[in-house]
Amino acid sequence: MTSQKKKDASLDVGTATPKRVTSLEGKSGAEPPRVDHPGGKGGGETLEPALDSNNPTEQFIPLSRGELFHSLPEIEHCTPQEQAELRELFRVMAAMLHHQYHAQFSEVQRLYQPLDPDSVFEFDSPETDLKKSSDHVFDRLRILLDRANYRRLSQGDLEMAVDNASVLGIKLSVDFSLFEDLYIYARGDREEKWTKRTWWKFFREEKFDVKVFQRLVIAFRLRDHQRLSKDHSTDVVYLKSFKSIPHSDMHALLPGTQVKMTLVDQGKIILPSLSGLAFSIFKLIRLTAVFSIFATIFSFFKYWGLLIGILLYIAKGFFTYFQTRDKYHLNLTRHLYFQNLDNNAGVLLRVLHEAESQDYREMVLAYYILWRFGEDGLAMDEVDRIAEQSLHKKTRLAIDFEVSDALKKLEAMAIVFSSEKKWFCKPVPEALKALDFRWDSVFAYNWPEGQPQKT
Known about the structure:
Helix content is 45%, strand content 15%.
């Protein structure tokens, strides 16, 4: 579908509607793709995919570079020379794109370094500029995550997770007043098979479905608060990246969370303490009566012994509470230890790489479709439909292809152009020359005397 500006989205962004696309005639001798799209030249066989309507449409393309090339529609019908030329074009395209993202990384790194909790450099950053500086970082991060095909989750989504039962068996409460700014972005809404053992099933292993985010990025800045730990600062911006996080557990990644114990654990603490306390009070009352009649030294010591016993019962209840709480925290830490991918500046580097990779995949797919099936030009929605059909055939996922963004980037590289609402691509040799010229113009300096000009 045509790319639209992403805004704060809920977890369910809608369901995909199956599309029918008619076949197009491409290069001579090419078999038309089995898609039905309006305005096509042929009346080829149609195929209506059975898309999974339970999963929201996402824009993330989960294909490696090698898999992407081999999944291009009808790539097997291209000659070895055509495939070699296309590979070379995509290699140069990747180099140009990488150079552009390298410049962006330098800029984002410059903005983030004064706010990086792990930075070893000294910066003069007056407190009055803190809000403005952090807003610049959050804005740049939002743009990069948008390009990497993440979507922002609202606070309502997070509050819903807090209210739901945790997959890890841990109930947590979150104090949102700790945060000056809080942004959560997710990608890859999938179901995974997890296993668990329960005592009521005699600890037999059973599998169950868990809805997870394959990737989750959290960016936040804290405010002065009485519950703020000494290990955290209000003058920095924290960035965290995780993998395979259940929907109901994403709030467990935030600082300032408190464990809410189950009724069973509360019963284990309260009932023994109450019963012991009641028994001690009963004995104390009986002993008091005895003490009023027989005021002996032995009875006096027994009286104070019972008082100490009551205090010990109360102390035991508190210690049991802290023990149980620590057990929950340990369980949570053990799980999240292997889910953490990156922190702070490392998150920026990872997100930049993901954004570059997604841009590359979109550009390759858009150029190839114009080259293979657009001899007479293709409308933007035709490119979009062929791309989505091709991705669904390979991944069995309903992927929203960002066709507008891909075509604009290719147009900026001067290898595609539009005319009368149709898009055309330059032949591969001409596209290579255009990219070669742009690459040589990256550093536009005069050639030194005696240095042979490039031919």
